[in-house]
Amino acid sequence: ETEILLIRLKGLVNGGYKAGAQEMNAIVSEFVEQTKNHPSSRNLLGQEENFNLVMTLSKGSIAGFIPISDTGLTASPGKLWASAEKVDYLNLSISCLRLIRNIMASGVNVQRLFGSSGIVQDLIKLLEFVLVIVQQGESDPEESVFKDTLDLCVTLIQCLVQLLGNSCVNYEENQKLIWNELFPSQFQKLLFTINKKICGFTCFLIYNSIINSNSRRNELIQNLVLDNTQSILSLMLKTVLITSSKDENFCLEWISFILQNICLRNENENEIGNNHTGNTQDVDMK
User: Which residues of 181-200 are buried (b: 16+ CB within 10 A; e: fewer)?
Assistant: First the structure.
C-alpha cells in the first residue's frame, strides 16, 4: 500500500502540483498514519530518492503558503491571507512536517539528508512568518485577520519545532545548523507564546542542542548575563510559573534537564550525558 501511494505522490509532484493541495494532503495524511506505527513504511520513505521527493513536496507546500525568496519573505503576513487555497497549503505543510517527523525515526541517514536538503532555511522562514500570525492572534484574537485559522498556525509551529528537535537528537551537524538560525531571537519569540506545547518543544530542541556542546551551552549562559529579564533561561522559568497542569510535566521535564546540564556539566563531564540518554529520543506528538 505504501508503494502504491508513493507512485501516486510521484505523479502529483512530477506533474507540477496540478492536482491541488487538498489531493496531495490526502495522500500525505495516509503516509503519516502508515509511518506512525510501521517501521517498514518509515524505512521505505527514508530511502534517499523517496525522502528527497518528500522534501520537494514540503518545499512546494511552503511556497504555496507564503512567498519566499533567497532574501526571505517577500510580503508581510497581513497582506497575504486571502483565499481558501492558502489554508489548503497550510494543512498540506502541517501534514508534510508530521510525515518528515515520523520518517526521522529511521535513523541518522535521514537526519543527514534533512540537514543537507536546504529545507531548514525554508522552515525557519516559515516559522518567522507564522509566529507573527500567532502573536497577532494572541494579542487581539477578535481583531486578528487570521482568527479563523489561528489554531492551524499554532499546530504548524508545534509540528515544526518538534521536527527540528527530532532532527537534532544525537546529530551535531543539525544541532549547529538549527542553533545558528534560531539563537537567540527566535527561541525567545517561541518562549513568549501562550501555547505551552510550543514552549515545551522549544525546550526539547534547546536541550538536544546543548547536551554535547560546551560552546552552545556557554552561549545560553551568556544570553542570561546580557539580558537577564528576557533571556531564554528567564523565559523558560516564567513558563513554569504560568503553565497549566495539563502541560506542566512536559515543560518541567525539559527545563529541568537543561538546568541540570548547565549546573552539573562542569562538575562531571561524562555523567550527565550518560544519565539522560533515554530522554534524548524523538518526541512524538499526536
Answer: bbbbebbbbbbbbebbbbbb
